[in-house]
Amino acid sequence: PYEVLIVGGGPAGAAAAVYAARKGIRTGVAAERFGGQVNDTLAIENYISVLETDGPKFAAALEAHVKAYDVDIMNLQRADQLVPATHEGGLIEVKLANGGVLKSKTVILSTGARWRNVNVPGEQEYKNKGVAYCPHCDGPLFKGKRVAVIGGGNSGVEAAIDLAGIVAHVTLLEFGDALRADAVLVNKLRSLPNVEIHTSAQTTELTGADGKLNGLNYVDRVSNEAHRIELEGVFVQIGLVPNTEWLKGVVELSKHGEIIVDARGQTSVPGVFAAGDVTTVPFKQIVIAAGDGAKAALGAFDHLMRMPA
Ligand code: FAD
Q1: Nearest to residue 284, comparing CAs of 36, 66, 1?
Q2: Residue 96 Cα: closest atom of ligand 1
Q3: Residue 67 belongs to what H/E stretch?
Q4: How far is the CA of 303 from the centre of ligand 1 (A)?
Q5: How does pLDDT run across 173-185, given as a tens digit for each residue?
Q6: How many angstroms is it from 289 CA to the middle of ligand 1?
Q7: How does 9-23 read in b/e, with b if 16+ C-beta sit within 10 Å?
Q8: What pLDDT, in 10s, does the model give residues 77-94?
Q9: Which of 158, 140, 129, 120 has the alpha carbon at shortest distance from 240?
Q10: I need a surface site. Which of 6, 52, 155, 304 has the fewest CB within 10 A?
Q11: Global pTM?
Q12: What strands lie across the sheet with 146-150, from one edge to the other?
């Protein structure tokens, strides 16, 4: 069995693996796709000490760093069940989709999250070519340009306020008949001169030319009128979904499905820790996920030290 088994090989899982392996304990990483979300990222300019890199390069560097240590990397492996230990000090099991079962004294869950798509024509085609999901990551790329934000919940309204300080103009589109964000955010948004808000607006298509996004079409759901906005960027903000479907009923989750962790990354299940985008930790970023992975590994190590021999 492992002493630390990490499920998920994004920045959080990779950092956890390096920290665990450096303690000289038996460490394994099972990941559906090593590297995680960064594989789908173009430019990365906010990982401190790395002025600029791109996603695939960053993912390769994560893997190289983990491989420099004695870590079992099990890539292309999807976990589909977690079985807590039956008694204190017992082994935790992780069952894989391929039928295999991995056993470990501690487990770190770092299965990340995925952005919900609007699923309209043009979204996939112009992803990273004008269609973005992360204002903290890609906002500065649209400096002085026109953008739209799809989604009028807290994350959409926060994104619109954030972007309004960087870009020339922001249009916020909400499908429902009212914004669903906190009143203070909505008031702040309404006070900004370069923001326009449309409710009951159903996005129908993202258009482009020469491999670049150039506009958004939407229908006013009340009047049924079709509208078009010319722009350079669209931020889709209709939800970040944590990859925790397989943990429901086993590990305590928030109402958004995020794993609830304490300051050391400990979950509700003894010996099971979690790190990164999959948890309740606010602000989903690479540098935060990596720091979080290191923290969970140290939390797991501390837990191992206190386990009965
Ligand atoms: P993830 O990166 O999501 O990794 C999760 C890992 O778990 C993957 O290996 C996945 O395959 C695996 N996994 C999932 N389910 C299972 C399962 N059941 N069994 C086994 N393995 C599983 N952040 C920045 O800081 N700067 C940026 O510029 C930036 N740009 C971004 C651009 C895009 C398009 C996207 C989508 C995100 C961007 N982010 C950026 C956010 C950043 O990528 C994430 O915050 C970060 O990757 C989170 O790391 P993580 O390790 O928690 O999760």
Answers
A1: 36
A2: 19
A3: helix 55-67
A4: 26
A5: 999 999 999 999 9
A6: 9
A7: bbbbbbbbbbbbbee
A8: 999 999 999 998 899 999
A9: 158
A10: 52
A11: 0.94
A12: 131-132, 233-236, 146-150, 169-173, 195-198
